[in-house]
Design goal:
Radius of gyration: 24 Å
Bound molecules: uridine-5'-diphosphate, magnesium ion
Structural class: alpha/beta
Low-confidence stretches: none
Mean pLDDT: 87
Helix content: 40-55%
Shape: elongated
Strand content: 15-25%
Number of strands: 8
């Protein structure tokens, strides 16, 4: 098998067969063997039924993994990578925002220059609002300052890479997955290729501002311990401050007003709560890692092998 195309799907009943048609049309020119690995991530619609139909009718290499519930795109990508047997592996969204022509170009770029291990597509221009852009910029600035690995602004999970990259990603079995960070962590020589994402073919995006914010926090927690250090620093600083305050109060003969007292009490409680909050967030992530629960649970895996 030359190329495995991993496709995470959540509520994509209207897109999966369209995806298959569009990709096979373009990949007709592809001389080598390739396979589709669809992962139905606990869709509430008939995505899996559509995948079953594809497996039953098409003369092609299709595999479909059916999750027992929704585990999230990160888990779906991981499951797809685990099943991928190609010398080259790619991850593509099911909604046709990422076009097959672009994937082919990425693949050709990768095989042309053997010194590269991965080609990652990134959106040069993004059609997003000012507020979202501001927060995304802030996130990338922050994470690149506080993490040891580099995060490229705009780089997506839309990538093609060699088997060796796939193997190293699969070997990272963390439950709280942040694939963008995992790609940076494993390293390998990556070529960043600009592309323009199309509109979603059907359905709606699962991401909203709150979801993205949570995702950003999980990225920071997974790839930096600086927030823990900051909270320790903050704790030390306020402790010192309170001693200084005590000395001043003693020198001045303890005549602070009620307002000042109120301010200090709330300030210190705020710092304490913040510190405890940061600690407990890291602890909750550790807790879920320690339990070693599976990243996903597959109900069934079906496939369509070449029919005569
Ligand atoms: N997806 C998934 N599990 C989820 C949410 C999304 O597998 O819980 C898939 C979805 O079907 C799509 C890809 O992840 O193929 C990207 O999702 P979406 O299009 O909603 O995100 P966006 O393009 O807006 O970033
Ligand atoms: Mg999309």
């Amino acid at each position: 098998m030359k190329l495995s195309i991993v496709v995470p799907c959540y509520n994509e009943e209207k897109n999966v067969s369209l995806f298959y048609e569009e990709f096979t049309k373009v990949f007709k020119k592809f001389k080598d063997e390739y396979e589709f690995i669809f992962v139905n991530d606990g869709s509430k619609d008939n995505t899996f039924l559509e995948l079953k139909k594809l497996c039953d009718t098409k003369n092609s290499n299709i595999k479909a993994i059916n999750f027992s519930r929704n585990f999230g795109k990160e888990a779906a990508m991981y499951a797809g990578l685990c099943e991928a047997s190609g010398d080259y592996v790619s991850i593509v969204d099911a909604d046709l925002q990422q076009r097959p022509e672009v994937l082919l170009e990425m693949y050709n770029t990768l095989i042309k220059d053997d010194s590269y291990d991965c080609v990652a597509a990134y959106q040069e221009v993004r059609s997003e609002g000012f507020v979202l852009k501001f927060f995304k910029d802030a996130f990338y600035k922050l994470i690149n300052k506080i993490s040891d690995v580099e995060f490229v602004r705009g780089a997506s999970d839309f990538r093609v890479f060699k088997k060796v990259v796939r193997d190293s990603i699969v070997s990272m079995g963390e439950v709280n997955r942040f694939t963008k960070g995992i790609f940076s962590f494993v390293g390998f020589k990556t070529y960043y290729m600009p592309y323009k994402a199309c509109e979603r073919a059907n359905g709606v995006s699962t991401w909203n501002f709150f979801g993205l914010f949570k995702y950003a926090i999980s990225g920071i927690v997974a790839f930096s311990t600086l927030p823990l250090k900051i909270s320790t620093f903050l704790g030390g600083l306020t402790l010192m401050g309170s001693f200084i305050y005590l000395i001043i109060a003693l020198i001045l003969g303890v005549n602070t007003s009620l307002m000042m007292l109120f301010f200090i009490i709330t300030f210190f409680s705020g710092v304490q709560l913040l510190t405890i909050g940061v600690f407990s967030h890291y602890m909750s992530v550790m807790y879920s890692e320690i339990k070693k629960r599976p990243i996903y649970i597959a109900k069934e895996i079906i496939s369509a092998s070449k029919k005569k």
